[in-house]
Amino acid sequence: MAEDFSVVVLASDLGIDARPFLTRSDEVDEQENWHDCPQYLGDDEDFSDLDLLQFFTLQGLDKSGHRIFRIVGKYFPARVVSAERLKKYIFQKICSQCPEGPFCLVYMHSTVQKDDNSPGITILRWIYEDLPSDIKDRLQVVYFIHPGLRSRLVIATLGRLLLSGGLYWKIKYVSRLQYLWEEIKKGQVEIPEFVNNHDNVLEHRPLTDYGIEPDPFQLSEVQSSSLSLNRYENRWVS
């Protein structure tokens, strides 16, 4: 009797790596339990160079008592760090620094450049799917700080396809730092200066969230200053 099969059609212009969808389910079941924390803790690979970048660090606690792993997207050199090494590093950090108990991720997307700082959604999916099941269960929420319009659209349209249901529903968008403090007390997570600066820009120019830069040349200020000069000229004439 012929084996059952399924067909997955992906548009070629989406730039999606189809390999994760071509793995047979029985192969996934067989491989599901091959990885565990001890093998990564025993790995002799040196990650001191990645530690210096500070893009993935353990911080304090959120208001629910979950340990916080801070991810600063701008600090990650996507061009020079392979996906395999990134996966090993993340596994090693979680297993060594937070071996038990619930935790959350605070991801800072501020001023991230796609080509320079983003490993890609398919690689992130691959890393998450390879996490031991107990680590997936311990991950409670992902605070996504300063999501741009493109990030929202990609996750909204492709997130349900590329991200497992558990991870997709754990993502919580945080458009401003003031909303983060509703979930995490100040001082529990270190905010880089450029993230604070970006937050101030968004506060004064909210349309920047949607890729729209209002009055980029500050023409309104020029107009107001010219009006004030006209008032002075009228005074001089009088």
TrEMBL record:
Database matches in SUPFAM superfamilies: CRAL/TRIO domain
SMART domains tied to this protein: SEC14
Domain CRAL-TRIO: 49-198
InterPro entries: CRAL-TRIO_dom (IPR001251), CRAL-TRIO_dom_sf (IPR036865)
Protein name in UniProt: Ganglioside-induced differentiation-associated protein 2-like
Annotated gene: LOC104745200
